[in-house]
């Protein structure tokens, strides 16, 4: 057995790491000179340490084990205690959103009507299972429109860059319809511990999250950066042949028994099209909306808001320009020069696509104007920066169903998918899925 891993983001690197530990032969090809994909940390000359991908991670058991394996445990930095507070815009001002169902009833964030509707969920019978039900439909029928608009909608934009009217509940939060079916009520299931996990630590690493992928790449014996896979073919014996472009120019890699796809669907589809045209078409259909992260720094004295939380999200019904902001300086104060605060504001995603495609100067000006309005900011920013993703997070809508079906069918051809469109959009999801895939492959030797 020898496995070709195509893509050197967190998924491909983690898969290679566990294959290497199991003694399975592999080659990992990454087109970019830098490993890590979406995990990228940016240290600016002005003294800011920024993340251009995920800003922090939930410390899952699998991620904690990986960090320990890599000798990075002592570099873990927990988010500040205030990060437990999450704000949501309502009526033009930011208010703390209750973090647990019981507090929804005692907190003043929701109306009496919404609280009464929430209580009725205990008595509402379970609906028949619908594999095509959207997140919005599920929450609207179980909890009513206000919970959907002011709790679910902003968090779906923040986690998935998505639109709950299109995202599928069984692909994004499958545990919730499962609780409905098991207990007849989602809330009853949650109260009985149906989610199976408490609140996890929110962490980063001392020098940024890119430390994880840099360390993985440095520990791999068969990692080939700057080497792009340009074509895939199949020999008469069933092994896969790769055409490569790299420092030595065009080359043909030896035959591989398995392929591991650690790339976005739009990058995978052209490689598979000659051999598996139906699968390639399904993968090409997956939607990745554009998104920008706009970084804005201000003197602390210029900002009226206390910024005592993780950040603030903007529900679509509030009609804002941006989807919301992370308060980077509140979560990790050491990442910003003393006396300053830093906002990481997200423009774009499935609900704000037009804004994501505007020019950088337009985005920066619009973000500053909106921050000034809602946070009581006086004066201009000390500094602003931007990072743009033409394609950000894969959308788990109807189109992902075909992609997942294609991935399942490809396993019979000794092709496995480990990227976030298959594993789940979070880094812990990718680490868990890559590790399990490596364990499965190792048993086939």
TrEMBL record:
InterPro entries: Amino_oxidase, FAD/NAD-bd_sf, Protoporphyrinogen_oxidase, Zeta_carotene_desat/Oxidored
Pathway annotation: Porphyrin-containing compound metabolism; protoheme biosynthesis
Major enzyme class: oxidoreductase
Cofactor(s) of this protein: FAD
Alphabetic keyword roster: Cytoplasm, FAD, Flavoprotein, Heme biosynthesis, Oxidoreductase
Signal peptide bounds: none
Gene Ontology MF, one: oxygen-dependent protoporphyrinogen oxidase activity
EC number: 1.3.3.15
Residues annotated as domain Amine oxidase: 10-440
Subcellular location(s) of the protein: Cytoplasm
Family named by the database record: Belongs to the protoporphyrinogen/coproporphyrinogen oxidase family. Coproporphyrinogen III oxidase subfamily.
PANTHER family xref list: PROTOPORPHYRINOGEN OXIDASE (PTHR42923)
Job description of the protein: Involved in coproporphyrin-dependent heme b biosynthesis. Catalyzes the oxidation of coproporphyrinogen III to coproporphyrin III.
Protein name: Coproporphyrinogen III oxidase
Species of origin: Hymenobacter ruricola
Name of encoding gene: hemG
């Amino acid at each position: 057995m020898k496995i070709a891993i195509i893509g050197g983001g967190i998924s491909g690197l983690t898969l290679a790491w566990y294959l290497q530990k199991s003694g399975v032969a592999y080659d990992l090809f990454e087109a970019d000179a830098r490993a890590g994909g979406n995990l990228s940390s940016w240290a600016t000359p002005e003294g800011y340490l920024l993340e251009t991908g995920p800003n922090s991670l939930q410390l899952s058991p699998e991620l904690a084990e990986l960090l320990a394996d890599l000798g990075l445990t002592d570099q873990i930095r927990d988010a500040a205690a205030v990060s437990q507070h999450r704000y949501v815009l309502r009526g033009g001002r930011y208010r703390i959103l209750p973090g647990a169902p019981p507090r929804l009833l005692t907190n003043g964030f929701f109306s009496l009507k919404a609280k009464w509707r929430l209580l009725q969920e205990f008595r509402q019978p379970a609906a028949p299972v619908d594999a095509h039900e959207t997140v919005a439909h599920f929450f609207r029928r179980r909890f009513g429109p206000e919970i959907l608009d002011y709790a679910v909608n902003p968090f779906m934009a923040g986690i998935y860059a998505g639109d709950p009217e299109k995202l599928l509940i069984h692909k994004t939060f499958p545990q919730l319809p499962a609780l409905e079916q098991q207990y007849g009520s989602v809330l009853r299931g949650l109260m009985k511990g149906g989610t199976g996990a408490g609140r996890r630590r929110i962490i980063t690493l001392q020098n940024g999250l890119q430390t994880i992928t840099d360390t993985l790449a440095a520990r791999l014996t068969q990692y080939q950066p700057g080497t792009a896979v340009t074509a895939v073919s199949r020999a008469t014996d069933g092994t896969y042949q790769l055409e490569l472009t790299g420092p030595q120019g065009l080359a043909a890699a030896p035959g591989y028994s398995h392929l591991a796809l650690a790339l976005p669907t739009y990058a995978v589809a052209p490689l598979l099209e000659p051999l598996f045209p139906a699968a390639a078409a399904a993968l090409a259909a997956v939607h990745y909306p554009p998104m920008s992260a706009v970084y804005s720094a201000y003197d602390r004295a210029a900002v009226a808001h206390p910024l005592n939380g993780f950040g603030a999200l903007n529900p679509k019904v509030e009609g804002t320009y941006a989807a919301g902001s992370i308060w980077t300086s509140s979560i990790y104060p050491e990442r910003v020069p003393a006396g300053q605060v830093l906002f990481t504001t997200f423009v774009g995603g499935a609900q704000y696509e037009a804004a994501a495609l505007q020019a950088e100067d337009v985005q920066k000006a619009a973000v500053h104007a909106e921050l000034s309005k809602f946070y009581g900011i006086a004066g201009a920013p000390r500094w602003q920066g931007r990072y743009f993703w033409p394609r950000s997070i894969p959308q788990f809508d109807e189109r992902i169903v075909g992609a997942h079906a294609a991935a399942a069918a490809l396993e019979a051809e000794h092709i496995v998918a480990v990227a976030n469109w298959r594993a789940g959009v979070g880094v812990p999801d990718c680490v868990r899925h890559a590790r399990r895939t490596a364990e499965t492959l190792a048993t086939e030797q």
